[in-house]
Structures are given as structure tokens and as C-alpha cells.
Amino acid sequence: MVLIRWHGHACFEIVTSKGTVIVIDPHDGYSLGLKPPQVQADIVLITHEHFDHNAYAVVAKPSAQVLTMFVGEKSIDDVYVKGVEAYHDREKGKRRGRVSLYKVVVDSIALVHLGDLGHELDEKYSKYLGGIDVLMVPVGGTYTIDHKSAWSVIGVLKPRTVIPMHYWVKGLNLPLRPVEDFLSLKPADWEYRRVESNQLSIDVNSISNKVVFILTPP
Length: 218
What we know:
This is Zn-dependent hydrolase. The protein starts with a strand and ends with a strand.
């Protein structure tokens, strides 16, 4: 069983069955008007060096391994990490720079976090990232792809399950769109489920197909 816990914005905590804690794109909370993440990570993955994604000191154990804008493949304990280069804008990084898309495989479950992806993806990214059980995709626009482009990316990557992120929630001081914009464009063959907490437990044998999980902000 793998635990996925959303700490708001683009910050996710993943806990493996062995207890290894991975945190992706930590923020400090206060700078965004959100609660600070309350977690101690063994592994921290940072997709890019913007203040709302790189507050590793807030979450990292003294012994933690921190990977920043990592591109390549690496195994750490029971965790496999693959970083794939992409961009924060539609101009190959000329405006906002580069980002790393992270694929994390734990307990035979493949999770992909798209960070502040700023452009739609073509089929080469589907090849780079391979099969995806859970996709964490930005949908709020302004600094990332918007709700329309998010569905285009989902169509290319073909994940089994989607968790939207990086959208406006109560208290957030960034001008992002709400998740309802994303849900309004949901294809007929997808469904969505609202989770009454900020966490979701998944097992490799019981992963839903074509389901969007809306986690409750912490």
C-alpha cells in the first residue's frame, strides 16, 4: 500500500510500504497563504528553483537526499526516480526556464509529477515516461498549463488515475484558476471523485482507471 498526501499547491508526500518518505516540490506555506507541510522526508525532489516549489529545508531530514531539477535515472532504497527535462513555458524555457518531470516508482506503482509544466507534451514524452498509474498534473494556469492543456497532456500520457494540483484553493495568494474549470472539461469516459481528506491510499492491484481524485486541501 502506498500513501499519497497532498500538502497543497504542488507539494506531495509519498510514503512507501517500507516507510520511505518522498516529498515533491515542497513550499514553506507562509509565502503562499497555506499551511506549511508537516513532514520529514527521506527523499526530496524539486522540479525547478522557484520559491513555491523548492523549500527543501522545511521538509528534509538531515540525512535526506535532495534532487533538484534532476534529469536521468536513480534508485534510492526502495524508490526508483526518473527525471525528464521539460519547460516552464511555451518557448522552450526562454521566459521561465526548465523544469524536470519526475517519475517515481514505489511498490510497483508508477507515479508522475509534472511540476510547473508550461507546455503541452507530444508522444516522445509518453515514450520517456512510460506507463503511468497516477499522474499529478497542474491545472490552474497563469504559471503552468491551464485546464484545457491539462486534458491534452492527459490524453498523450494516458495515466490510469489523475490528481490535479497547482490550482486556486482558499487562502492561496496566487492568481490561479479553481479545479472546477478543469472538471468542467472532463471527457465522458472519465469520472471524478472528491476525497474528504488530503490523502489517498493505493494498492497496485486496485488502482482505478480513468478516475480523477480531488483531494481536500490540508
